[in-house]
Specification:
Blueprint lengths: L10 H6 L6 H9 L6 E3 L5 E3 L1 H5 L8 E7 L9 H14 L4 E5 L4 H5 L7 E2 L2 E4 L1 H5 L5 H21 L6 E6 L3 E3 L9 E3 L10 E3 L1 E3 L4 H8 L3 H9 L2 E5 L4 E3 L6 H8 L6 E5 L4 E4 L14 H10 L2 E5 L4 H16 L5 E6 L1 H7 L12 H20 L4 E6 L6 H13 L3 E5 L1 H4 L5 H10 L17 H11 L5 E3 L2 H15 L4 E4 L19 E10 L4 E6 L18 E2 L5 E2 L3
Helix pairs in contact: 4-17, 7-8, 7-10, 9-10, 13-14, 14-15
Length: about 575
């Protein structure tokens, strides 16, 4: 067994030593995609043309596997690593498999989390390219977002024919970086020629509605229609003003046209992977693009995809938003857990995680069990993947295996970090065996016909374990106003901390008897959901005291170092 924290080879060292194949060869040999249907970005990255994707529509779909996790902790759970390892392992046992991941945001890469391309010997490559700029998709999304912002202020400058109330402009500018100084700003300062000064805000790019639309649109026409339906603000009599009222949708689509093609890369074991789109799961819906997922299902027998953070955020939104809107039906959920994270949820501080503590494993398992029970409410079969560390003791692992067994869940120890696909073959076989069973139609956490307030309450009480939700009168009136304006049929996308079932990031385990405070509500007319901001979650994160950027650089050979 290889320890994920003592192995002298870092993730970037392993990635730099990868024996990558030309992406054209991977596409041809593994997927049957001819080079004419690819737009290469160098030797190891390519975009799959939209014209080719249209030719796949009559093919049958493969089986969809969702990888999610227990509530994340600083100890790490390895959800992306497990997704990659499971995909490689399924290919090793003879199942034609693709993986579908989100693109990393530069904010976390230079902030606290580091890279997001997997880890150890279960990675997608080229790792540094994927983490830094990649094929430019996020830049295109940010520019499209900010074009709309520029058009709004330009419209006001030239007379404001639409009657936008400058106090009720809801569209924000974005940048793909953690920059707390941009959360609240005043724009258009410096005189008459620069426009009318007003309070403004920045979000991180992955929180932009353009990102959400990008990942939910099914084709370019759908993309353009959704962009036109973005609500940019309201008039003085509180009527919505749309991006299409500014004729913005065409130029925004033009900026996104190339980015909208899915990105094809490979794992360390030269298996194909789509990495496309990347909305945050604690702010947006946390899944890769519908287009990439649906295309993968036409190209492979099995598709492994992940949803961001714990199952209360990523999996809930994957199911209630992405699957509901795209007609997807995953057939099994793999929940990633680690002994280390269980001990943290059981009250152990990070410095003491290396010491055996069976009691903490038992206590912390309440968090995992709640996630399992929640996923069963969606009518999903569940398998637990125990992401193994060398510090795990046999008694701790046996305790977790027995807890899972007592709850009727198969748990499998997996060492894909240290051994790649070979370390996850048992997990792959258990997943493949489950997929031999007849598929079940998933259920949702709430019915579409419920009003918006009831939808939020259903998630809070049935998924988070809360007693109720609360909000001041201003927010409750906004709920009713959106209901009255015809947005009540939209699903809700709850923005809250990823570190707890509650809105208090320090409340570990499986808290009950808490309430969820709603601080803000925004309608996303193009993405077709309502964002409900709860607790102190920020849509523009800040950098930590010691950001990951401090360790990133370029060595004398021109190689990027320090990136995860």
């Amino acid at each position: 067994m290889t320890d994920q924290h003592t192995n002298p080879k870092s993730d970037i060292d392993i990635a730099n030593a990868a024996n990558m194949q030309k992406i054209m060869n991977v596409a041809e040999e593994k997927l049957g995609i001819h080079a004419d249907n690819l737009e290469p970005y160098g030797h190891y990255k390519a975009k799959v043309s939209l014209d080719y994707i249209k030719t796949l529509q009559d093919r049958p779909d493969g089986k969809l596997i969702l990888v999610t996790a227990m509530t994340p902790t600083p100890a790490g759970e390895g959800k992306t690593t497990t997704t990659v390892g499971l995909g490689d392992a399924l290919n090793r046992i003879g199942k034609k498999t693709m993986i579908c991941l989100r693109e990393p945001s530069l904010g976390p890469c230079f902030g606290m989390k580091g890279g997001a391309a997997g880890g150890g010997y279960a990675q997608v490559v080229p790792m540094t390219d994927i983490n830094l700029h990649f094929t430019g998709d996020f830049h295109a999304i940010g520019v499209a977002n900010n074009l709309l912002a520029a058009l709004i202020d330009n419209h006001i400058y030239w007379g404001n024919e639409l009657g936008l109330d400058e106090r009720r402009i809801s569209w924000r500018r974005v940048v793909d970086m953690n920059d707390r100084a941009l959360r609240y700003i005043v724009n258009s300062m410096g005189g008459v020629a620069n426009g009318f000064p007003r309070e403004d805000h920045f979000d991180i790019t992955v929180a932009s509605e353009v990102m959400a639309i990008f990942c939910l649109a099914t084709d370019l026409k759908d993309l353009e229609n959704r962009l036109g339906n973005i609500i940019v603000g309201f008039t003085r009599d509180r009527q919505p003003v749309y991006a299409k009222d500014l004729n913005a949708q065409g130029s925004m689509t033009a900026l996104l046209k190339d980015a909208f093609q899915p990105n094809l890369v490979q794992t360390l074991e030269n298996n194909p992977a789509f990495i496309h789109g990347g909305p945050f799961a604690n702010i947006a819906h946390g899944c890769n693009s519908v287009l990439a997922t649906k295309t993968a299902l036409k190209l492979a027998d099995y598709v492994v995809t992940e949803a961001g953070f714990g199952a209360d955020l990523g999996a809930e939104k994957f199911l209630d938003i992405k699957c509901r809107k795209a007609g997807l039906n995953p057939e099994v959920a793999v929940v990633v857990a680690t002994i280390r994270a269980l001990k943290m949820h059981g009250g152990v501080v990070k410095a003491d995680l290396g010491s055996e503590n069976v009691e903490a494993v038992q206590s912390g398992s309440r968090n995992l069990i709640r996630h399992i029970d929640n996923l069963r409410k969606f009518n999903l079969p569940v398998i637990v993947a125990i992401n193994q560390f060398s510090s795990d003791t046999s008694d701790e692992v046996q305790t977790l295996l027995e807890i899972c067994k007592s709850h009727g869940v198969k748990a499998v120890i997996s060492d894909h970090w240290g051994n790649g696909g070979a370390g996850a073959e048992e997990l792959a076989q258990v997943v493949a065996d489950q997929l031999e069973s007849p598929s079940q139609q998933i259920k949702f956490a709430y019915d579409s016909h419920l009003d918006l307030w009831s939808k939020v309450k259903a998630i809070a009480t049935n998924i988070y374990g809360a007693d109720d939700i609360i909000a001041d009168k201003k927010i409750r009136d906004q709920f009713q106003d959106l209901q009255d304006k015809g947005f009540g049929h939209y699903p809700v996308c709850i923005a809250k901390t990823q570190y707890s079932f509650s809105t208090d990031p320090n409340l570990k385990g499986a808290p009950s008897n808490h309430v969820v405070p709603v601080r803000e509500i925004r309608v996303a007319g193009g993405a077709e959901f309502v964002v409900v901001v709860c607790g102190d979650i920020m849509t523009m994160p800040g950098l930590p005291r010691v950001p990951a950027a401090d360790k990133i650089g370029v060595d004398e050979d021109g190689q990027i170092v320090g990136l995860f």
